[in-house]
Amino acid sequence: MGKTPIPATDKPSRFSVLAISAYAIALLGVALIVASSWYFYSRMRSGSDADKFSYSIPEESLGDHLGRSISHTAKIPVESKTPIPLTQRRANAGQFANIYPGALLNPKYWSQPEWAGSDPYGGPTIPDEFIPILSTDIFQNFNPSSKATVIRIPSINVDATVVDLGIIDVANERSYETPDNTVGHIPETPDPGQQGKGWFFGHLESFTAGEGNIFRHLPEVADLIKEDPVDIYLQTNDAEFIYRVTTTNQMHEEDLHLTTSNDAQITLVTCWPPRVYDQRIIVNATLIAYRYL
């Protein structure tokens, strides 16, 4: 009598649940080893790229960069409440017209005109609706005292709200809260337009807390200012101020301390590098203009 064949449904499974679980655990282990190795390598390398983020506008060109090569176009008594109008000295583009047909093309695009951007030629400019001002001047027509509500940095596509950060208890210490999908201002530091240095913090990324990544492109400013001015717009309820970036740098979080200035300046801060966050990218900017809203 022949053997009874085993029904197809009764054949042993090629991959048992136990085998699948073992493979999954092995793959998870490999992933954890790779992730841990990457993290420890990144932490070991953290801070090694500090030179990449350290840049200052050369001292000899800082005045022109900030629009300080200006002349009074009218003499108005100090007691007048009308601000003194100022005009910027602009570079003479005409001297290049005879040697290159794109005389109004920004020089950084001369080697590749087919990819030319819209950046203007002629050096730093200030929008017509803004009043240029020296950051060391005292406003004659109003005393800025409003809190910042909006920050814009067009060159890195930042357009975000600003809030004052509160103080919270962390273990046995007190600390400023972290900005949640916004840019945080340290309330003890100056408001827009005021003398001194206002401090603003934003996330590069918020991998676990979900608090946004508004300053994800802030590290790029170090390279951008080597080509063109980078302007930061701070808006309050009654005015808008333009600050122009002058320096960038990187430092360890333990070396970061709030500082002030005799000038009207702001400092933007974000964490670095990704997933490690023990360094800080610092961007400093100086007030160059304002307008009423």
Quick overview:
This protein has 293 residues and is of the alpha+beta class. It has helices at residues 17-45, 59-65, 221-224; strands spanning 55-56, 70-72, 86-88, 131-132, 150-153, 158-164, 167-170, 173-176, 183-185, 196-201, 231-235, 239-252, 264-272, 279-292.
Low-pLDDT parts are 70-104
Report how far the terminal alpha carbons are from each other: 101 Å
Backbone structural class: alpha+beta
Number of strands: 14
Name of the CATH architecture of one domain: Beta Barrel
- What's the overall geometry? elongated
**Rg to the nearest angstrom?**
27 Å
- How would you name the CATH homologous superfamily of one domain? Sortase
Adjacency order of strands in the biggest sheet: 5-6-9-10-13-14-12-11
User: How much beta, percentage-wise?
Assistant: 25-35%
In the CATH scheme, the class of one domain would be Mainly Beta
Average pLDDT, rounded to a whole number, is 78
Largest sheet: 8 strands, mixed, barrel
CATH fold call of one domain: Sortase, Chain: A
Classify the helix fraction into a percent range: 10-25%
Number of discrete helical segments: 3
Order of helices and strands: HEHEEEEEEEEEHEEEE
Structure write-up:
By secondary structure, the protein is of the alpha+beta class. It has a domain at 134-292: Sortase (Sortase, Chain: A). The chain is built from 3 helices and 14 strands. The chain has an 8-stranded mixed barrel. It has a two-stranded antiparallel sheet with strand order 2-3. The chain has a two-stranded antiparallel ribbon with strand order 7-8. The radius of gyration is 27 Å and the shape is elongated. The N and C termini lie far apart (101 Å). Mean pLDDT is 78; it is low at 70-104.
